[in-house]
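Let's study today's protein:

:::
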Amino acid sequence: AAGATLINWKAYLAMTARTGNPAYGLHLAEQHAPLFGALDYCFRHAATVREALRRLFVYQRLLHGPIQALSLVEEPGLARLCFLPPLPVEVLPAQVPQFVLARILTMLRRDTRRAVVPRKASFRHPAPADLSEHRRVLGCPLKFGAPIDALDLDPALLELPLPPADRWLDTILSRYASEMLARRPHEDDLVSRVRRAIADTLPG
């Protein structure tokens, strides 16, 4: 699941059609399984939320290749977790940003052991007919048709410690993730992107 999170976005459409569940991305985000693979554990064993997010940004290429879609924008009194994949909103299934943002929120709640509630959740796609699952999972005001997919967070959250953190295990996990990243080709040139696009369409 983690490897297909962003690249194989057509899987979200297929699963939504098969299950008849338009909130599939939100429900997937709530699962207990380590959906981000090794990054799930790197996140969990960081010392603070800020460090956990930093690692997610540094190692995100393990999830979806050279795309740098996740970032944190800090302003006075606000920390905005942004998700901006290089696909127009008309193409990207709504379930993808729903999954990514709700998954990170689920990890924050799990690893801080607090009921983290964003100040606001913004999505580029239009509002669905039924918002009940968005309200239940995210628990915050919602905005649709926004310029970016994002969670607005209290900046004090960034300095919270993560109770599960194990310093020794953290060292091992960070080394492992760094080695995995070093083995990944950068593939940020046009030829490599075309090659990946062709490979993605072959199953269809």
Observations:
- The two ends are 19 Å apart (CA to CA).
- Residues 3 and 63 are 5 Å apart (CA to CA).
